[in-house]
Task: structure prediction
Amino acid sequence: MKRKLISCLLVLSLVVTLASSLTVNALDSSVHVDRIVNATVEFFIGHEGQYGSVTRYDNGACSIGKLQWHGNRALLLLKRIVGKNSTQAAQILGSTLYNEVTTSADSAWKSRALTVDEGNRISKLLVTAEGKAAQDEQAYIDISGYIDHGYSQGVRTDAALMYWCDIENQYGYGNAINVTNYAKAALGRSKSATINSLDEYYYGVTHTSASLVQNYISRRKTTYNYIKNTLGWNTAGPDTGCQNCPGAAFYDMPMSTDWSHAGIDFVLSAGLFQGVSSASFAPQSPMTRAMLVTVLYRLSGTPTVSGSSSFEDVAAGAWYASAVCWAENNDIISGTDDGIFSPESNVTREQMAAILYRYTVDQGYPVGEASSSALKSFPDKGSVSDYAEKAMAWANEMGLIQGETQNGVTKLNPKDNATRAQVATIIMRYVNAYGA
Result:
């Protein structure tokens, strides 16, 4: 069993709302608190629990919620949820458990396990709107506190601070300090520690001073690989080129040196794209047909539309309904089948080119006399569908689609899904080309 959130944090002078960006006073501007918090929460959810998760007995006490708050901290979370809607909480928990939660001292659940019925009731409370909001708030407070602790101990980069968060979350504040001091001493530094030194010297400390944490070694490697390989964060130092960029709070925002960074910055600044959540942009996720049409609708100035689209699978109240109606009325889109638009289907690179070409015609911009001969240098030109050939040639001539190079060969890959990062970059090029 893993220990869960065992350290009690006191976060002083900290006012947290999820709609605003928290700045911990002790940190300098090179540390992106929101980005670290969002990435850490996302990682913890994948390795701790979901909103409604309840572990009735976990190393001495119960653990609950998406960060698996343990023992007394589970009780404090429940108190926070009850405070948001006491009537609802009383109905869900029942009088006995409700009274215990509301009247117990904050330290009363140090060794509190749960019955099956209690676990079910708490799980139901955790997934209410109030339960989710309380968990989001508490997660932000807790992880921001971890960041503040790590920074005060000489951990300076985003990557190293996220690694520290995982150590403190699972291993405790005091032991996290021990690891950091060992790492700094081994590097001959008095004030700073990197993710590489923390990871390497974690083993030196844990091997000699605490046999219990042998169980956590695989978790540390998982954390290290996630930060370096999945997030691709610069482990040598902060991404100073993204301190104030529009996507700085997204944990998966590409580095400022990445080819896609400028395009994502552009579409976020222009209000053409939004994140898939408050924490993630999902640059490598496929662009859906609904997303693309919505982007073009915003690019056109979100004109007023009346009525609804003719597509059977586009509900009148859907977030993309107005955009689809506008695009259909202006012959920018056609369905994938009789009466079907397939809004959640991924858009391919050639579909994207065709839709963008039709949009250009609708807007009255010049498209020239693009010829399929423009594609002759691409070895996979023959795989472009007939309907998209002119559009792909136009997009290439305009410098919008330049092909993808792998192993020294540049291809169009017309049937591949277009990613959000790719579309963002193409939209930036489009606006620059047409002044749209």
The CA atoms of residues 163 and 195 lie 7 Å apart. The first strand starts at residue 54 and ends at 58.
